[in-house]
Amino acid sequence: MDLTVVFDFASLAFGSLVLMISFSVCLYSLSYMFHDARSSGFFILVFLFVMSMLILTMVGSFVCLLLGWDGLGVTSFLLIIYYQNSTSTSAGLITFFVNRLGDVFLLISIALFFMDVSGGYMFFSSDWGCMLGACALLVTGAATKSAQMPFSVWLPAAMAAPTPVSALVHSSTLVTAGVYLLIRFSSYFYGMWVIWVMMVVGGVLTSIMAGTCAVFERDMKKVIAFSTMSQLGVMVYSIGFGLVLFSLFHLFMHALFKALLFLCAGELIHNMSGYQDFRVYGGLGSYFPFTTAILGGSLLSMAGFVFFSGFYSKDQIWEVFEFSGLWGWVLVSAVFLTVLLTVAYSVRLFMGVGLVDTGSHPFISVGNGDRFMTASMVGLFAMSVFGGSLFVSFVDGLVSEAICLTYQEKLVLLSTTFLGTLLWLGLRGLSAMRKDLEARATSAFLSMWFLVYLSSHGFVTGMFNVVSYVKTVLDAGWFEWLSGSGVYTLAVRGADFSSGFSRSGWSVLGLFAGCVFLAILWTFI
């Protein structure tokens, strides 16, 4: 088997992005992990994770792709359980099992794909059904890594990891590995409408579900995790609609501002003694003006505010959908709703953290980060603001097909900024008037549309009930009577019978009769 290294636009651009964000996260971690006694092991795990990501990105062999894919799963598990407490361990196990499920799908897909002994990416199969099954399994395996429905539960749980891990693993690398795999193999999906429908439906449901969950979430890191899930859904249904390059563009922009968001959140959480419920954060803008300003800029980019990096990628997807017939307008509605929810939870997060003072700062430690934290955030902030325009200028062929929208159509996407703010104000007023309604909505949405009960929680509870039933019926029931307990009971009752029989007069008469019978039998024999 020959080792093939792929140097094309996608691999080089994505590899450069991974290295840039990894450098920023490591620089940030020099300060964040300074007092950790095991920080050297942390940096070794980060290095192994980055190497696995580069292997996945740049190799042209399925065998090496599996090496990078499994390397991502193992190193991400070790990074999530870094704190070695019950919360991080349970989150790491959920992540590990979901990723292993994705490995199974990918292995079966490769087994169906593997028509060439060289192990390369080029295959020639005349069996359309076999290719369809392989592509469907490939998409399902990618969905597990990119937290698409119904495999979304692990991403919010993985926020138990250190914040630098979330910035690197859960924003720009691990979760985007599935999207990158779909982009890399998108040419195999042409003519398979079932695969396109799978990606479009899964992406739309994931983006809307994650957006509604983020609107009601109180944990700062989980809000950012749900926003990541929502943006991944946008990328997946863009690929499903054939907008592969636009999805790659949005992947790059998302990685920049989402890593920056996690770094800002990490500094605030670090100064709040690890407390992540941002309802007690209010008014931190006066204590951390620099970090709050950077946080606001990254939220504007994520919401697609004009001239920020997120605006360029979302605007291109929006314009293509508007000129794509009926299905295009269905996806326009999905994009509109996704952006609306994004603005709503972005405004909620920024107001709750920086502006609205709750008067409750029980764990605050005043002071902006040191030069390492500042330098890492400034570099990513510059790319979050100017990266979109630079990227569009560099890849002019990406937007070479000029789409002429009217002035009113251009304003529709921009108007979502104000509509999202109104949505946040409306939800805030409604929650103030109807606490019972807020409690029911929070319970429904924080369970990810009850996906938690249907997947991890439901699976564990169901298995526990099955095991309890088996234990009651078999282990403590028939098996017990047929083995130890039954033999013991039979022996005890036999001994009691023998003891009672021996103490009675009938035992002597029976013994005499037995001896007479044996003597007569012996005489005749």
UniProtKB/TrEMBL annotation:
It is found in: Mitochondrion inner membrane. Coiled coil: none annotated. One of its GO terms (molecular function) is NADH dehydrogenase activity. Its EC number is 7.1.1.2. The chain crosses the membrane at residues 6-30, 42-60, 66-83, 90-115, 121-144, 189-216, 223-245, 281-307, 327-351, 372-391, 411-427, 448-470, 506-524. Keywords: Electron transport, Membrane, Mitochondrion, Mitochondrion inner membrane, NAD, Respiratory chain, Translocase, Transmembrane, Transmembrane helix, Transport, Ubiquinone. InterPro entries: NADH_DH_su5_C, ND/Mrp_TM, NU5C-like, Proton_antipo_N. It catalyses: a ubiquinone + NADH + 5 H(+)(in) = a ubiquinol + NAD(+) + 4 H(+)(out). The gene is nad5. Pfam families: NADH5_C, Proton_antipo_M, Proton_antipo_N. One of its GO terms (cellular component) is mitochondrial inner membrane. Residues 2-43 form the NADH-Ubiquinone oxidoreductase (complex I) chain 5 N-terminal domain. PANTHER family: NADH-UBIQUINONE OXIDOREDUCTASE CHAIN 5. Core subunit of the mitochondrial membrane respiratory chain NADH dehydrogenase (Complex I) which catalyzes electron transfer from NADH through the respiratory chain, using ubiquinone as an electron acceptor. Essential for the catalytic activity and assembly of complex I. The keyword Heme does not apply. It comes from Litigonotus ghinii. Belongs to the complex I subunit 5 family. It is a multi-pass membrane protein. GO terms for biological process: ATP synthesis coupled electron transport; electron transport coupled proton transport. This is NADH-ubiquinone oxidoreductase chain 5. Residues 345-520 form the NADH dehydrogenase subunit 5 C-terminal domain. Residues 62-338 form the NADH:quinone oxidoreductase/Mrp antiporter transmembrane domain. It is an enzyme of class 7 (translocase).
